[in-house]
Amino acid sequence: MNMHTLASWNVMISGFSQHRYFGEVLRFFRQMLSEGFQPDEYTLVVILRACIDTEALQFGQSLHDFLIRSSTLTGVYVTNALMAMYAKCKCIEDANTVFRLASERDLVTWNTMIGGLLENGQNTKSLELFQCMRTQGMKPDRATFIGVLKACIALGSLDMGKMVHACFIEDEDSQCILLMSTLVDMYTKCGSTEDARRIFNKMHTRNAVLWNIMLAGYSHSVEEAVKLFEQMEGDSLKPDEVTFLNLLKGCQTEEHLEFCQLIHNCCIEYGHETDLYIGSCLVDVYSTCGSLIEAWRVFEVMPE
């Protein structure tokens, strides 16, 4: 007597999917069908999530074909999982087809498609889809904004970045550290350090990542970067490797030797003198600034 139930099949499929035993998952799925069970939305989503791996693309395509052939009605969760699978497997046109044919779309559907376009280097299309999303009355969330801001960074589009910023400038997410860090990053990389600093100054909470992004924006002005670094120390935040690398980027001429020495002393103070990346950067900067003796001293203490 067969004691299997849909729930028991789902447990087996879920367990093997989590461990990426795709062959066994496919075998279980076929056996489940042969016993007369129809997969539910949970079954389908679990399998598709396991297929977010290029080696499992054929598996995911087979499942999609099965859904089409059997005219199985699927909900928005399966739609989203199908899109994510195709996008991760670099089949963005297939993901777009699923998106266009979807009978139901939620916020995750839009974010998945926008994110998929970004992952596949189609930044302009992701921004076009963002505009379409808004015209259709779907309200973006912070994940949407973070995604499209990254597209603006990739395109170097300050105007588009400002447009995206205007969409949430009065929103409650204006203090979300991840969103605002991405916004500051956009402004610095698109050439508007002044706007970036204005937003940075308004933030109630600033973590090391945000400080480092702002410091990177001053790579053209080591004087301003050092002043900002001193403020960072005043906020009792411990600088990391990225902090010092960003500071050293601004030391490009002999006039900056004094700043290089100051930054070097801070590296020693915070225990980063023997860091390989910082050491290499110090050697390069000292050489650029014309202090070969200091460059050699740093080189001697670098790890082999």
Concise synopsis of the structure shown:
Pfam families: PPR, PPR_2. This is Pentatricopeptide repeat-containing protein. The chain is an all-alpha fold and 304 residues long.
Characterization of the model:
There is one protein chain. 70% of the residues lie in helices and 0% in strands. The chain contains 18 helices and no strands. Helix 5 runs parallel beside helix 7 (107-119) and helix 11 packs parallel to helix 13 (208-217). The chain is elongated and about 80 Å long. The termini are far apart. The mean pLDDT is 91. Keywords: Repeat. Pfam families: PPR (PF01535), PPR_2 (PF13041). This is Pentatricopeptide repeat-containing protein.
Topology:
Elements: H1 6-18, H2 22-34, H3 41-50, H4 57-69, H5 76-88, H6 92-101, H7 107-119, H8 123-135, H9 142-155, H10 158-168, H11 177-189, H12 193-202, H13 208-217, H14 222-234, H15 241-249, H16 257-269, H17 276-288, H18 292-301
